[in-house]
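[recover] target loaded
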């Protein structure tokens, strides 16, 4: 029988399908539809990141720590986010992305729904 690999051996990491990541995250915590609706109401139409009104699309749930980075699907890891922030942030670590957004003026750029 082969020896077990040492505990500190680097483990292979393969990109998992989103479905599998979500399933894994939900083993730890999973938010309910009611929790999301309450969170969305409390956010009052304001994007968690850029603090602007979310526009006609009404905002989207965003995992602050993305599922790809081991974030949970629990309500504590979910915020209301505008489409522009959500599309820009993707799987970037949140601190890194906010620093980038502040540095580049991303948060103050006009949004599509504001300029239309
Ligand atoms: Zn935003």
């Amino acid at each position: 029988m082969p020896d077990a690999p040492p505990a500190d051996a680097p483990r292979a990491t393969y990109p998992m399908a989103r479905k599998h990541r979500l399933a894994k995250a939900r083993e730890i915590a999973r938010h309910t539809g009611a929790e999301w609706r309450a969170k969305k109401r409390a956010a009052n139409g304001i994007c968690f990141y850029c603090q602007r009104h979310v526009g006609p699309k009404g905002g989207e749930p965003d995992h602050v720590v993305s599922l790809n980075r081991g974030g949970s699907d629990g309500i504590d890891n979910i915020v209301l986010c505008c489409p522009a922030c959500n599309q820009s942030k993707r799987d970037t670590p949140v601190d890194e992305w906010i620093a980038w957004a502040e540095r580049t003026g991303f948060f103050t750029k006009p949004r599509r729904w504001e300029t239309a």
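[recover] notes: The chain is about 40% helix and 5% strand.
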